[in-house]
Amino acid sequence: MAETVTGSRLEKVLKSGHQAVTSECGPPRSSDASHIITKGQLIKDHVDSINVTDNQTSVTRLCSLAACVHLKLQGLDPVLQMVVRDRNRIALQSDILGAASFGINNVLCLSGDHQRFGDHPQAQNVFDLDSMQLVQTVRYMRDEGKFLSGDEIKQPPSMFVGAAANPFGDPFKIRVPRLAKKVACGAEFIQTQCIYNLDKFEKWMEGVRERGLHEKVYILAGITPMRSVGMARYLQKNVPGMDVPDELIERMKGVEKKKQADEGITIAVETIQRLKECKGVAGFHVMAIEWEEKVPEIVERSGLYPRPKID
Amino acid sequence: MIVGQQKPFEEIWQLVKDHKQFTVFGCNTCVAVCHQGGNKEAGILASQLRMRAVQDGLEIKIDDSGIERQCEHEFFEKAEELIQGSEAVLSLACGIGVQFMASKYPKTPVYPALNTTFLGDVPETGLFSEKCQACGDCVLGVTGGVCPVSRCAKRLLNGPCGGSTHGKCEISKDTECAWQLVIDRLEALGRLDDYEKVQPIKDWSKDRAGGPRTFKLEDF
Ligand code: SF4
């Protein structure tokens, strides 16, 4: 097993050679934590680590850091998602220390959706750093034990550092170079955008392997089950950077309404089964948006259960 | 150049309607190019305001005039008398001109008739487009001559984000993705390999973030 450098369970699973399974929970639009705890409990035996989204789609919610603390107190391994939209370098570094102080050992560095999509389109945005620079920042804090200012951090944060990749964003020709950039910045794991166009994803992975990037970073393939043909169409038309092929829409349409959700789950399972064989895919990130109860079924049917025991 | 757009008429009217007299001043440089704040527009706005005053049964004397550039002392000479004799001024200059006027005439109320919108160019007749945010530390040399600070909705120095679709930005199908433009341009220059150079964290202290900026020529 490759040597681990943080207390992260995700790091241990990946470095011991297992295909990892992560999932995500979106915090509530309320101060009631029971919601996130229930979600975590639903999936905890079927995943290694759980991402907590950071005001996703720019809609104001209970903060990612607090939600991670709630999951951590339940004995789970949370992945703190951090977008650079809402906080400057002072606040970001401060939150990283705060998270580490609770034993939160994973961070996923993201740009964040533009606030135009959210509940406060009139808000100012920050973008002091970009997502790559946040990756560099966390690595610097951890490895050099310093703030960006150069000042010393007595007890550096023990963080396993991740970033996102969207093989379906344009222009396609820089999507592998872009991953190389994130790796050069210090990303240790990658969680991808939801994969529906498998051919395109495999083509991207080919480019990734050509450059040997799969040996430098753990790539977790993003999986989101579709609940209905309506959702499939919505993703295809309205979500920038999402690639849903027409065949999938046709397949969902060909199934009677009551059974479309099951079909969506089956598609997710088939996707995982196919990508398990794709060299360089180190695991799966199952994002069942507001449908967390389906994660165990997907994981079991994909042959990814039971999860490895890690001390 | 500086681009501005006239405020909604009703908003302008609410600013000035309680005066007995005021003078409308155009600024005949940047904001004249975008047909929003030149001397001609000042004349038109003044007549609209006169009509509105009549409609509301108010007796207001509204004069209009122009100043070539409302941001430098020398251009004020000809207008001096008129400004001194005005109860208030409605300026069609950008925010710079409005403030310059206000600081020159501390006892005269000066109101803005424009919203100063951005620093931009004129890519085609009648179209104005933001190109610079005066961040104080130009990166155009490494981004193929396309400014991500002003033209990327997330001002990413290492873009594009995952939302770039068919050359358009995730915020709107009508907005070009600046990073698509950067990449196209690097490719045209035969420098696509430069894409992989990681741009360092920016020093925003040279931007608005560092407080108001000044610059003094030592020889003057
Ligand atoms: S789509 Fe392009 S312009 Fe829009 S935020 Fe992303 S990188 Fe910036």
TrEMBL record, chain A:
Reaction it catalyzes: (6S)-5-methyl-5,6,7,8-tetrahydrofolate + NAD(+) = (6R)-5,10-methylene-5,6,7,8-tetrahydrofolate + NADH + H(+)
Pathway(s) of this molecule: Amino-acid biosynthesis; L-methionine biosynthesis via de novo pathway; One-carbon metabolism; tetrahydrofolate interconversion
Example of a GO MF term: methylenetetrahydrofolate reductase (NADH) activity
GO BP annotations listed: methionine biosynthetic process; tetrahydrofolate interconversion
Domain of life of the native organism: Bacteria
Family membership: Belongs to the methylenetetrahydrofolate reductase family.
Protein name from the UniProt record: Methylenetetrahydrofolate reductase
Lineage of the species this protein comes from: Bacteria, Pseudomonadati, Thermodesulfobacteriota, Desulfobulbia, Desulfobulbales
UniProtKB/TrEMBL annotation, chain B:
Domain Methylene-tetrahydrofolate reductase C-terminal-like: start-end pairs: 111-205
Pfam short name (any one): DUF5981
InterPro entries the record matches: DUF5981
Name of protein: Methylene-tetrahydrofolate reductase C terminal
Organism from which the protein derives: Desulfofustis glycolicus DSM 9705
